[in-house]
TrEMBL record:
SUPFAM superfamilies assigned: Aldolase (SSF51569)
Alphabetical UniProt keywords: Manganese
Top-level division of the source organism's lineage: Bacteria
Species, as recorded: Streptomyces longispororuber
GO molecular function: 2-isopropylmalate synthase activity
Protein's UniProt keywords contain GTP-binding: no
Identification of the protein by name: Pyruvate carboxyltransferase domain-containing protein
Amino acid sequence: MTDSRSRAMSEMELLDCTLRDGAYAVDFEFDEDFVAELLAGLDETPVSRVEIGHGIGLEAERTGIKAGNIDHFAWCDLARSTLTAKPWGMFAQPGFTRPATIRQMCDRGMSFVRVGVEPERVQEHLPYLREVADVCGEVHLNLMKSSATPVDRLLGALDGIGPEIAGVYVVDSYGAMTPETVERYVGAVADRYPVVGFHGHDNLGLANINTVTAFRAGATLLDGTLNGIGRGSGNAATESLAAISNLLGEDRFAYQELAALAELCRVNMRVIGQERAMQVLGAVIGIHSGFFPLVEELAVKYRTDPARLMETAVGVAEQESPRAADFHAAAARIADGDRPRPLQLTN
């Protein structure tokens, strides 16, 4: 594990993904004037890089997911006109993002792409990752739902990931990791790969401390969103990470400017409220917030408790993290178990 005492704060890079992860919080609807103002503001800060676009990923609408009101070409135009001194990128997933589209984005000024893959599926997507690396000069691998995979198996899943991948991200999709688990996962990946990142969620209120812990464990690419606005309970707050950096001895990221931009986001982003109980349950049981609407629907239909449904789905899942079919199977199992049994008569 990297000794944080030997690493300078100058190694820390902040990536602001307010205009990507924050898209979930506003149902993928952004006011373009606000976007332009925020991007221009970020361009004047020392934040290292900016991620924009559809929250789920570039071309997510190809699978029937709601499209954002700003399409990916318009995002490129907004970024090119405002981020004159800052690299910017987008998020991608193999299930719907075509390498040809990534090439188009790079031709329009995109500097990097982050590809989200669950650890257990990395091996099947190695050809995709290599194809993306052929069309984009900087490709990062985001290990979605990292904590669902034991760390030794996560490392094994990375066999074949070579220097064509610029960095590997540990991703706390459930917001379930503690500082101890962050240290273990990040430290293990950092022992194997020279560039490691961390993306945290705040279900249990640990996103900021987890991100600082990730840096101390060897991660140099740290994600945040302004005012912590993001999917579910949100993310580590960019302005808070900058302020913590200041308290640790160096105001590298102009925390006061970022705090002002966080206020701009608080005022202008119409954040959709989230049910707090589901966020906590999801973190502890290990369920991604994308399944919460299905859980709530099935819980009402089968007259069961959401926590019981989640726990049963985890139990029936054959892979590391449950999928939609597992929740339906769990609901059926609960219904079958609760159904009165016929009276068995004996002689």
